[in-house]
Amino acid sequence: MEEIVKNVKQLLVAALACSALLGGCAIVDSNDINKRVEAALKSDPELGKFPLKATTEYGHVTISGTVNNEWQQFKAGQVAKGVEGVKTLKNNVKVAD
What we know:
Elements lengths: L1 H21 L7 H14 L9 E5 L2 E8 L2 H12 L6 E8 L2
Parallel strand pairs: 2-3
Antiparallel strand pairs: 1-2
Helix pairs in contact: 2-3
């Protein structure tokens, strides 16, 4: 019986330690990241007029749409990269002909 109590105590201490370590970490799902990326793109004064879209899978984001010039294409990537939770970014934004 003492051995069981000892094992349970060890498991509880380990669980509390894990909980304390993870307590400050926010787990953000792909849908939330996707919404934040699209909101950031839309709220940008220069980019908001373009129909830019994002798709997200486990923090890996792809942005797409069409802008007027290469600066706007670059800026879209920078704005998207700045969103919390974005691990990698694939910039598929095209420049209009």
